[in-house]
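User: Thanks for the earlier help. One more: Heme NO-binding protein. Can you show the sequence and predicted structure together?

Assistant: Of course, both are below.
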Amino acid sequence: MKGIVFNLLEELIRREHGENTWDALLDAAKADGAYTSLGSYHDEELTKLVAAASTLLAVPPHEVLRWFGRNAIPLLASKYPPFFVLHKSARDFVLTLNSIIHPEVRKLYPGATTPVFDFDASSPEVLVMGYRSERKLCALAHGFIEGAADHFHEGIAYEHPQCMHRGDERCVSRIRFI
């Protein structure tokens, strides 16, 4: 996993919960916290930080990931405006994940492994999104989608009828942008 993910998490934890909470997370996760944005780190490092945050903040790990994704979008929009300015809606933005955003991420962060999404956009009201990743960070993807909706001043209705955490081959989400 690329260091930018850890940098974003650190910035959000410090901003929302304070310097001491970030230090406590590092201690609990037995992590040194020295992450460079282009560096590569084991996926388990994020798992340990999320588990520590879950314990310290008394919320389930999937809610930590969802919070992280949602709150990371404003930071990403300020750091990488070209990814956002060409879009008029969250749906339009989300539909470019495989074709525009992830290829650009791999250019900026060589070696980055991104999830694979598939979409059924045949309905103008509901976007069906499939998600596959060995990391199984569907809660993070959920948060990113909520953050994108916030960015475009939209709401969403989000259903997650299939999930790899429940034994399904892939995650499937039904998203209605409001």
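User: Great, one quick takeaway?

Assistant: The mean pLDDT is 94.
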